[in-house]
Amino acid sequence: MKKLFVILVSVAMLLLSGCVTKPDNIEPVKNFQANKYLGKWYEIARFDNSFEKGMTNVYAEYSLNPDGSIKVVNSGVTPSTGKRSYADGIAKFVENKDTGFLKVSFFRPFYGAYIVFKLDDNYKYAYVAGDNKNYLWLLSRTKTVPENIKQDFIKEAKELGYNTNKLVWVKQ
Known about the structure:
By secondary structure, the chain is an alpha+beta fold. The chain has helices spanning 2-17, 34-37, 147-159, and strands at 39-47, 56-64, 70-78, 83-93, 101-107, 110-119, 125-129, 136-140, 167-169. It contains three helices and nine strands, in the order ααββββββββαβ.
């Protein structure tokens, strides 16, 4: 009986490891164009999480893999050491390729949600959420953004139920 339980738990973990969810009130952008999203994005604001806590000069670079998935390279500087670190990952579309709902993994087979919920027409600014209210980012093609973009991001985040007092404005 114990052996069967271990097998069932192992199978369940394997099946669930590739699954991601999104908060009920977060809708990914439609008409998402991955080829326009590729390239470098600077992290302007975020909720601090263990994997990037305190980091400065943070950016992500996205490029297309031959299999259609997206290569992810995140990078940031740890202020106490001044050293830049890198994390390589992979992103795959959860629904279809024209919806901004992806799953990202830096530790396969475990994935987290990457939900682009607002994107300007020129792909200069992106508002990104994770699978729960502990993950939130404002990304930009440039190291700074106009004040009206910051205020719009805060407004949108509040309306979606995020505690914007937790936002960290990243030093670039």
